[in-house]
Amino acid sequence: MKAEEKKQIYNLIKTISQGIYGYTPDAFTHEDPVFKDDFISEGLNKKTSPITENQTTINSIPHDETKKVVSLAAISSKIQACTRCRLAATRTNTVPGTGVEKPLVLVIGEGPGYEEDQQALPFVGAAGELLDKMLASICLSRNQNCYIANIVKCRPPQNRDPQPDEIQACISYLDAQITLLKPKMILLMGRIAGQTIFKTNRGISSFRGEIINYNGIPAMATYHPSALLRNTELKAPAWEDLKKFRAELLKIDPDYQHSFVKE
Fold it and tell me: Closest by alpha carbon to 176, among 89, 259, 82?
């Protein structure tokens, strides 16, 4: 195995562990290991990997911990038990996310509303129906090629905006999901999702349609479906955003539309 491959695996497990446990497990608190390519030792004809006493390999991570962290189910279980912020006291259900496990696109909203809190699913009700139509217009679907998640996994009371400390308490779960899902692109629905991923305080109208690199993944924001339901004049610019998103996605996967089945 190449050194870079070992490093990628190590960082994957580290990121997901932080998301699940809410802190850095002991296995990752030391200085990051120095990885080297495996090589074939002359005369032995087998792969070995020399290590100095100050180096650590990926094999030093406990096997049971490695198995436990690398799954969406494990992340969801950790979210369901989470009490990191005040939202845990008022939620009915946590809403980890839903969709396919190897998505082409990750869709990120801000947080659960009333219906989502009741059903433990993201984007249900009128806003969810509109989101499904928006996705279908560019050959995307939560059942075929998307995963849908939120910035925070519990409903803020009265559907208020998530507070900065609540976002901070929850964001590692989303980062763990992104690391595990490895989507080709990220579509951000609304101001809160856009501001969090873009790391900005600007209004959504000032950065919607822009494409940035988020941890190596192209990400773009547009208006939240709820905003479109309140103000139909936003539908035209939102459609322009979706067309731009589709154009970028086609550069990454020119054939993705061919496998889409209209539901």
Answer: 82
φ, ψ of residue 46 to 5 degrees: the values are -145, 160
Question: Do 28 and 152 reside in the same domain of the chain?
Answer: no
Say if 163 falls within a structural domain: yes
Instruction: Give a yes or no: residue 78 inside a domain.
Output: no
- Give CA–CA dist 258/36, Å, rounded: 41
| 121: CATH | 3.40.470.10
Tens-place pLDDT, residues 100-152: 999 999 999 999 999 999 999 999 999 999 999 999 999 999 999 999 999 99
Per-residue HEC secondary structure of 93-155 comes to CCCCCEECCCCCEEEEECCCCHHHHHHCCCCCHHHHHHHHHHHHCCCCCCCCCEEEEECCCCC
DSSP 87: G
Range of the domain at 33: 3-69
What distances in angstroms separate CA 94 from CA 66, 79, 109, one per listed residue? 24, 7, 14
Q: Is residue 75 part of a domain?
A: no
**How many domains does the structure of the chain reveal?**
2
Of the CA atoms within 13 Å of residue 244, those in its CB half-sphere come to 17
- Give the pLDDT band of residue 56 (cuts 50, 70, 90): very low
Q: Is residue 186 part of a domain?
A: yes
> In sequence order, what E strands does the chain have?
39-40, 47-48, 98-99, 105-109, 146-150, 185-189, 211-214, 217-222
Q: What is the spatial distance between Cα 210 and Cα 218, in angstroms, rounded to a whole number? A: 10
Helix axes 164-181, 191-198, angle to 10 degrees: 70
* Distance from C-alpha of 103 to C-alpha of 110, rounded to nearest angstrom: 19
